[in-house]
Amino acid sequence: MKGKGLEISGTFARRAGVIQMEMTLTNKAMSVMTDFAIQFNRNRSKCSKMAACFSSHPNVIPSLQVAVKNNIDVFYFSCQYPISMLFVEDGKMGEYFFAKSLCLVALLTSANKEASLKD
Predict the structure, then answer these.
(1) What SS3 class is residue 40?
(2) Which of 4, 27, 56, 65 suits a disulfide with 41, CB 3.0-4.6 Å?
């Protein structure tokens, strides 16, 4: 992302069970940038924790909304993270996320059945 001289690049990583977002902020403006702050906003699935946002629903894209503020402006962007971030290092889904996924599938199935009955 580039905006007003601020270039942001990055990636996601999972190390020892912890999901991390690694970012590089580069000042390409002719002025000094100070007073940085970052905020990760709730995403489309209304989760505040990135790893809790797994959904088996095909229309949900795993993404994270980010706001970066400095003395010049506030920059907003959304970035997609790989679904593999939600799996443990051995490639299996962790127990917590598996249980959450089952609950979500059950809710979606129930909602679809209720919608079908009303038609």
Answers:
(1) strand
(2) 65
- Residues in the chain, how many? 119
The DSSP element (H or E) to which 59 belongs, if any, is none
- Which of the four pLDDT bands, split at 50, 70 and 90, describes residue 37? very high
For residue 118, pLDDT beyond 60: no
Could you give the angle at the alpha carbon of 49 between the alpha carbons of 16 and 8, nearest 5°? 80
Handedness of CA 99, 101, 105, 110 (dihedral sign): positive
CB of 105 closer than 8 Å to CB of 113: no
Structure tokens at 58: 């095909």
Q: What are the structural domain ranges in the chain?
A: 2-118
DSSP letter at 87?
B
Q: What is the CATH number of domain 2-118?
A: 2.60.40
pTM of the model: 0.58
As a whole number, mean pLDDT of residues 5-9 equals 91
Beta strands in the chain, from DSSP E residues, in sequence order: 2-3, 6-15, 18-27, 37-41, 63-69, 74-80
